[in-house]
């Protein structure tokens, strides 16, 4: 096996143009490893941060890409988790997803059921696992709760809204452009606040009769933090799981005392460990995908060689998500 394959390689930080297709060595899978012939790789904003140098988490030269799906083409010694021909999805924190084929630790991959299109699976795998962790573990959503989903027209925001609604919550979403507002409604939001023209906290209190939201899921960060905090109910929980507009500034922790509120900053990785947790979460997500319970669409597909164009569109805030066909 082994040989070579094509991949997107970054040799120095910069704009989308620094990503170039190169031929790279494709080793034989070693003990505990599998060789995956990839079908689709997701394009995430995390990849933009890696490419630009905002995150220096990829050793250069390196291949970006956190998640992809494909078919097992070879297995290394001692691997009994998969067989040749199995469909798999994976998230690899060490990157390497922007490639036609790659070698991967078998324990990082999860079985991908037949009937789920590779592009959709790749685009929504990380987002779906993240959302499940948010609504089931970080702050479990139960019937009767009021949930505020900031940026509910975005990728994870739509999933937060839909999954919270499926669990019996009243969901309030925020969105900017009219198209994003409609996406939030389509995702199941009972109320949508146009944050560019309405004060979010004021509207939340109007909708809830002055009680506020039991939980606020916020991936925007600096721009929405104060509004999210003001929107909380007594004993409310502000789940700050991203910072698209920049990190929140330092704040006086005693401000939480008036409502006995809490703020948390979760990351996905502890919620999908050990492997049994990854498998259970993946199976649950794929079942929801197959059942049509989630609002899953693609904003665009690009050949692997056009990764730079996908990044440019992502940075221009074009409606995603985007995938690379490998």
TrEMBL record:
InterPro entries: ADH-like_C (IPR013149), ADH-like_N (IPR013154), ER (IPR020843), GroES-like_sf (IPR011032), NAD(P)-bd_dom_sf (IPR036291), QOR-like (IPR047618)
Membrane spanning residue stretches: none
Pfam families linked: ADH_N, ADH_zinc_N
Keywords assigned: NADP, Oxidoreductase
Keyword presence, Oxidoreductase: yes
Residue ranges occupied by any Enoyl reductase (ER) domain in the UniProt entry: 14-324
Ligase recorded as keyword: no
SUPFAM superfamilies recorded: GroES-like (SSF50129), NAD(P)-binding Rossmann-fold domains (SSF51735)
PANTHER family tied to this protein: QUINONE OXIDOREDUCTASE PIG3-RELATED, QUINONE OXIDOREDUCTASE-RELATED
Name listed for the protein in its UniProt record: Quinone oxidoreductase
Species of the source: Novosphingobium cyanobacteriorum
